[in-house]
Design brief:
By secondary structure, this protein is an alpha/beta fold. It is about 20% helix and about 20% strand.
Length: about 230
């Protein structure tokens, strides 16, 4: 017995890990957010869209991928506001998401009201406004990210790409791939691969990093949206 310290416990060797072995303990998920698919090594790829700072994303790709991102963002507790001129292709998703709660709302182009985003109620605004989306009334801000969907490379793309923190590119034509290579300073191998990407594959780019990600729908997502596809 030691005064004030109770009984002496059993003696065991300490658990020690060498510094060189620490990388082996790392989890494959490198961020907190929405799992958007797997990388080339089969590890989960995560997109952190709920941020205390403005976050702009541009996706040059298909409706299917944008809708999967909307569903998965809603599943993490974010509210999703969709600005679109084709509400009919989003209505089924809006009704199915949230288990009866209105977590996905649809708005006409230019008619998105203030969303009141906060740390406890983050928002993702998806702008599905065609090849030439007008400047949005609701912009990225604290806890409110904005994803702009472009079906193809358009005249507005250079401005959007320049202002985006993250850019996703799905299968495009060889000419579009060459333009994107110049705009985003892509390596030759990435440019050559863009016209051959499979459905569901996206090249996600930041100013410093690039990663190919395969997005595969869950059983529920496939039942609602159909199989992955690049062309709507």
């Amino acid at each position: 017995m030691r005064g004030g310290f109770g009984l002496i416990g059993p003696r065991r060797e300490r658990h020690v890990v060498q510094a060189a072995d620490l990388d082996g303990l790392a989890l494959p998920v490198g961020d907190d957010g929405v799992v958007i698919g797997v990388d080339a090594e089969g590890r989960p790829a995560v997109l952190g869209i709920n941020r205390p700072t403005p976050y702009e994303v541009t996706l040059i790709g298909g409706l299917w991928t944008a809708q999967v991102l909307a569903l998965r963002a809603a599943a993490t507790g974010a509210r999703v506001a969709v600005e679109t001129g084709r509400g009919q292709v989003w209505s089924g998703l809006a009704q199915a998401a949230g288990g009866g709660q209105q977590c996905v709302t649809l708005h006409e182009v230019g008619r998105v009201p203030p969303q009141g985003a906060s740390a406890g109620s983050p928002v993702l605004v998806i702008r599905d406004c065609g090849m030439r989306p007008p400047r949005g009334r609701v912009v990225a801000g604290p806890w409110q990210s904005v994803l702009t969907l472009l079906p193809y490379l358009s005249p507005t793309a250079p401005r959007l790409l320049q202002n985006s923190s993250l850019v996703g590119v799905q299968r495009v034509s060889p000419d579009e791939a060459e333009q994107l290579g110049r705009l985003m300073n892509l390596p030759r191998a990435a440019v050559d691969s863009l016209p051959t990407l499979g459905d569901g594959v996206t090249l996600w780019c930041t100013p410093r990093d690039r990663q190919f990600v395969m997005t595969q729908g869950t059983e529920a997502e496939t039942g609602l949206l159909g199989p992955s596809r690049r062309i709507d």
